[in-house]
Design brief:
The complex is a heterotrimer of chains A (99), B (409) and C (150). Chain A has 2 helices and 7 strands; from the N terminus they run H-E-E-E-E-E-E-E-H. Chain A has 99 residues and is α+β, with helices and mostly antiparallel strands. The termini of chain A are far apart. The chains are: A alpha+beta (99), B mainly alpha (409), C mainly alpha (150).
């Protein structure tokens, strides 16, 4: 909820910004769109859209040079998982750290 | 002491890593045709790459975000996509040239046709990317690339008329049967070879791979400001050797063999062995850098997990992109297209893509939101803008000159 | 043969100066000459490269494989230069003469380098030595032909 009350420029601070897992540092995609609540007089950010997933503003932890979120149940890495299962995992050494 | 070692190692790596197939071929070719009369372009190009590599390194150290990540953020999705396609294609073309270069080096050493070496080279590149730690691959091939210093020593040994070389360097312009059009065309090629876009993608992504922060700015700057210019001197030595050996007898450089022959003429078999090893290290190292850069640019544009700091399965799309690029390289080279010709085109296309790569870096390096106190100063911006003008000029002139000179003939 | 060559040289330079005077670009004779001269210069490059590689082999400065690769590359390049030039169509008597002259010189050079490649590959160093000396003349002749037009 760190973002609450902060004035943001949608184009400059939100759109096309990198999404990062707050705990693991995993890269989770880009912000493709934003959802605003326009009833409150000044527009208030309610959610970020990445691909087909909607990330509620409550899951945003920090807006910095990247946006740190707690994805919870959201599945933001579908594409990566598919490629992992069907291609990369079939190659020996896919789970090893490099030396 | 440990700090000093790290800085020295970084500088040595930067020198050895500076030269790739584009620099090798273009400098030898230009040296043979124009002597040192285009040497000034190398100097201008090296200053340019220093300016912009320092900026991209600083952006990474301060914001923790690599270049292409921010390119999309600042240019928007559409323009960003355009920049991505242009930079990616140029980097892919460079990768093809580098793999061809590795195979040609093996062909020279063994006499076995390069087409047989080429799939092996591509496979080896993939294996190293798959298994070897980032800092190791950078250091090993960077340090081995230092063997190319043999060109500088060979130039000495060939005993040129130094006054003549200096005279050439200080009297720019075409000679003999060359025209101003071919002179300008190869000027642009040299510029493209020195400022190849993948260098900044690799440099800035490498900063993230090695987890740079503000404390690493000293290392970053010494790599750039000492390593790159010394790497540029190697380029000049390659041109110098060709100028001494080939210009007087009318030889035009069209093969990798001709690039390496001066070292053999100067030092015999040992010289040739060293230069072949150096060429292998330079092209193989650059093949690693370009395939990684292909993965970096695409993954960073789309926000996918990338990098060698995670296990391959954690960055599966990033690794798949690189595998596809390597397969594409094999397929293209299988058509028996001359890798040296591919190299010549790759540096000119690189010159065309330059503004798309460097303008966003300049914008971001001036953004107080990311950079805080570390944003560009006025003097730096002045020079960066001058260079942007040059990049634009080279980019616009490249295609017409390519047509007029029929690609430099 | 030599007289014919010399006579041709005179006519060629006459034609050249005439053309330059008229600044005519589309002249087929002039085109043939400038294309021939350019091909000759490219051929010089191949011949000199092959020579340099072979000399390095004789001097023990490179081992056999790179020498073979370099001479073979030069041979390929020369073959390409000769084929490209031969594919031109002479349209006047004048350009026909130019065509024959340059075509012959290019074929000569290509043959010389082919002989060199055969000798290098079979490790016949004595023949390599002789051919290297012969190629000097070939290269000099091509150099002269190459200077006849811009």
């Amino acid at each position: 909820m760190a973002a609450e009350g902060r004035v943001l420029h949608a184009q400059l601070h939100l759109l096309d910004r990198q999404l990062i897992h707050e705990r693991t540092g995993e890269l989770l995609g880009k912000v493709d769109d934003v959802e605003l609540d326009l009833d409150a007089g000044i527009p208030v950010l309610t959610a970020l859209i990445s691909g087909h997933e909607r990330i509620p503003a409550t899951q945003i932890v920090a807006i910095d040079s990247a946006i740190k979120i707690l994805p919870g149940d959201l599945d933001l890495t579908k594409g990566d998982d598919w490629v992992e299962q069907h291609i990369i995992d079939k190659i020996p050494g896919a789970g090893d750290a490099t030396e | 002491m440990k700090r000093l070692f790290a800085v020295t190692l970084g500088i040595l790596t930067a020198i050895g890593g500076f030269v790739d197939i584009g620099d090798l071929v273009t400098n030898a070719l230009v040296g043979a045709r124009f002597g040192m009369r285009l040497a000034w372009v190398v100097v201008v190009g090296v200053i340019g790459i220093c300016l912009y590599a320092e900026m991209s390194g600083r952006v990474v150290a301060v914001s923790g975000r690599p270049v292409f990540d921010l390119i999309r953020e600042r240019l928007g999705r559409r323009t960003g996509l355009f920049a991505l396609i242009a930079s990616f294609l140029v980097t892919l073309l460079t990768l093809i040239a580098e793999i061809g270069g590795v195979a040609l080096a093996f062909e020279l050493a063994s006499g076995v046709n390069y087409l047989l070496w080429m799939p092996l080279a591509a496979f080896a590149v993939w294996l190293v990317i798959w298994r070897v730690k980032f800092s190791h691959l950078e250091q090993v091939f960077g340090l081995l690339g230092l063997l190319l210093i043999v060109f500088a020593v060979a130039l000495w040994k060939l005993g040129p008329d130094w006054g003549d070389l200096v005279q050439q360097a200080t009297s720019p312009g075409p000679i003999g049967h060359e025209t101003w059009a071919t002179y300008a065309y190869y000027g642009i090629a040299l510029f493209g070879a020195a400022m190849t876009p993948y260098e900044v993608f690799f440099f800035s992504s490498g900063g993230v791979e090695e987890k740079w922060d503000r404390r690493d700015l000293v290392t970053e700057r010494s790599n750039v400001f000492i390593g790159f210019p010394l790497g540029g001197l190697l380029s000049l030595a390659i041109a110098g050797c060709a100028a001494v050996l080939y210009l007087p007898i009318g030889v035009q450089v069209e093969t990798l063999g001709q690039v390496t022959l001066p070292a053999a003429v100067a030092f015999g078999k040992l010289g040739l062995a060293i230069v072949l090893l150096g060429v292998f290290a330079a092209t193989f190292g650059a093949a690693l850098e370009t395939s990684l850069s292909c993965g970096y640019t695409i993954a960073q544009y789309f926000g996918w997990q990338w990098g060698k700091f995670v296990r391959p399965r954690q960055a599966s799309r990033f690794h798949v992109v690189m595998i596809i690029c390597l397969i594409l390289s094999i397929l293209v080279l299988m058509t028996a297209v001359d890798p040296v010709k591919v190299t010549e085109y790759s540096v000119v296309f690189a010159a065309m893509a330059l503004p798309l790569t460097y303008l966003p870096i300049l914008i971001i390096a001036n953004d107080p939101d990311y950079m805080g106190e570390q944003k560009n100063g006025r003097v730096l911006n002045f020079f960066a803008l001058v260079y942007l003008g040059l990049l634009l000029l080279a980019s616009i002139a490249a295609i017409p000159l390519m047509i007029v000179t029929r690609a430099g003939r | 043969m030599r007289r014919r060559l010399a006579a041709f040289g005179v006519t060629a330079s006459l034609v050249l100066s005439l053309i330059l005077g008229l600044a005519g670009c589309g002249d087929p004779d002039q085109q043939m000459l400038s294309e021939g001269a350019r091909s000759a210069r490219e051929a010089v490059s191949g011949v000199r490269t092959a020579q340099l590689a072979a000399q390095s082999l004789l001097g023990g400065r490179i081992w056999a494989q790179p020498a073979t690769v370099m001479v073979t590359d030069a041979e390929d390049a020369l073959g390409q230069v000769a084929t490209t030039f031969d594919a031109r169509q002479p349209e006047t008597d004048e350009s026909r003469q130019t065509y024959d002259l340059y075509s012959e010189a290019l074929a000569n050079a290509a043959d010389g380098v082919t002989d060199l490649r055969i000798a290098v590959r079979s490790g016949d160093l004595e023949t390599v030595r002789q051919l290297v000396a012969q190629l000097d003349k070939t290269a000099e002749q091509l150099e002269q032909l190459g200077e006849r037009a811009q």
